[in-house]
Write a structure and sequence with these properties.
74% helix; mainly alpha; single chain; 131 residues; 5 helices
Length: 131
């Protein structure tokens, strides 16, 4: 019975890892093209130019990116994301963060008045690290 319960627990754990991995990668794939476009913009241009609805949509993409990063980090802290997978995701998150002054600007704005707390973190630099 003990061996059976242990095996069931392992299977359930593997299933959860797979589900999280699949969901997060799918969500990232949906954001990736727009994130790459955002990374090409100069901050002054992006903030100063009136893109209309397109700017609002891109700001939503940035917010979705922040939420995805926070969720991945949350599950990493709960030990539901294997370390090797987390290292890969963390590198990708920080590559985008470091490539885009627009995204860094919005993160700074989001973190004012301890806004980072809504992302399940205790410090602004807990998952984004500027190189």
């Amino acid at each position: 019975t003990l061996a059976y319960n242990k095996k069931n627990s392992q299977l359930a754990n593997h299933k959860m890892h797979k589900e999280l991995f699949t969901e997060f990668n799918k969500r990232y794939d949906a954001l990736n093209n727009d994130l790459n476009i955002i990374c090409t913009y100069d901050k002054a241009f992006f903030l100063g130019f009136d893109f209309g609805d397109e700017k609002t949509r891109l700001e939503g993409i940035i917010n979705d990116f922040f939420n995805l990063c926070a969720e991945e980090y949350y599950w990493k802290r709960k030990k539901r994301i294997p370390k090797r997978v987390w290292r890969s995701w963390e590198k990708g998150m920080n590559d985008i963060y470091n490539k885009s002054e627009v995204i860094r600007h919005y993160w700074d704005e989001e973190c004012k008045n301890e806004g980072y707390l809504s992302y399940y973190i205790d410090r602004k630099d807990e998952f984004f690290k500027l190189r």
